[in-house]
Each structure stands twice: as C-alpha cells, then as structure tokens.
C-alpha cells in the first residue's frame, strides 16, 4: 500500500488528535515525563492544546493512506529562541504552582533544556516530535515524512534540526541524512539521552 505524505489542515484536527494520542504514550520523552502516571490523565487537555497550537503556528505533516493517519510530526520554522524561552518560563510557573505533580516538574526540565541548548543558527526547521501509531510501526511512515521534509528543507536552502531520543530513532535519522553534533543531553532521574542532529542537505 502506497504511503502518502501531506500537511494537516484544520479539518484534520480531530483525526490528528486521535492518532497522536494513540502514538505518543511510549515516545521516550513523553514516557519519562509521565512515568507512573496514566497518559489519559494528562492527554485530555495536553494533546488538543498541542495540536491546536501546531495547526495555528507551525506545520503538522502526516503519513499514511487516504483514509488513515499512520504517523504525525510537528515542524517549527525557527528564527530565534524567544519561543523556547517563553515556553520555559510558562512551564516553570506551572510547575511551581503544583510542586507535587512530577510530570509538570519534568516538563519544566525539558523546556529549560531546550531554551538553553537549542542551536542559535537561524533560520532552520525543527522537528519537534514525530510519532507513529503502534499498529503501523515498521511500515516506513516516519521515513516517508522525513524524506519529504528534508527534500523541502533542501529546496528552501534551510537546514533541519532535531533531538533523537533513542538509539533506534537516531539510526533512522542518520539514514535520512541527519548527522550527530557530538553533543548529548542527559535528562535526569533515568530519563532518555537526547542526541542533537542536523540535516544540511
């Protein structure tokens, strides 16, 4: 079955929320943030908010068939770190208001790390997240999105950046033309190791 890649539109909102909710609970950073907490406890507000913001401010790219979404990715066009710094301030404020809720503390850790470590090379395209619905993993949906978006980045003359959160995903990104920076970011308390990578066409 042929995999198609397309940008999500407003009318796709509910289907994207459903697919992302199915695909993201075991994503490495998400799983660490929510360790010991049921995904459903936080996904009710978090996922719709994330998808609505991405539809408004960023780009959501999907892979699958005409009738099914197999993989979801969120891409940002980055020309400063102001957004990351603002999100870090917001996350710290939320965490301070609920000091006993560990997922909120861990979100603050991640947003602080991104604000500090995100590259100051502008402009570039940033792969914020890519997830695949479990029943469609291994079918090439993630690779199809990466091939499409790296081709677009090359055509636009812009590099693309991401942080691989597992060795397996890093191998996929390497096959798609991304290269390690040589830096590693270790999340605390047994969290995953993030591997910054660049695609330069």
Description:
There is one protein chain. With 201 residues, the chain is α+β, with helices and mostly antiparallel strands. Helix content is 46%, strand content 22%. Helix 1 crosses helix 3 (39-57) and helix 4 packs antiparallel against helix 5 (102-117). The mean pLDDT is 97.
Topology:
Blueprint: E1 4-7, H1 13-23, H2 28-33, H3 39-57, E2 59-64, E3 69-78, H4 82-97, H5 102-117, E4 124-132, H6 141-156, E5 160-164, H7 167-175, E6 179-180, E7 185-186, E8 193-199
Helix pairs in contact: 1-3, 4-5
How much of the sequence is in beta strands?
A: 15-25%
> What is the 3D form?
globular
Unreliable runs, pLDDT <50, ≥5 residues? Answer: none
Helix content: 40-55%
The overall pLDDT, averaged over residues, is: 97
Structural class: alpha+beta
What string, H for helix and E for strand, traces the elements in order?
A: EHHHEEHHEHEHEEE
Number of E-state strands: 8
**Radius of gyration over C-alpha positions, nearest whole angstrom:** 16 Å
Q: Alpha-carbon distance between the termini?
A: 28 Å
Main sheet makeup: 8 strands, mixed
Alpha plus pi helix count: 7
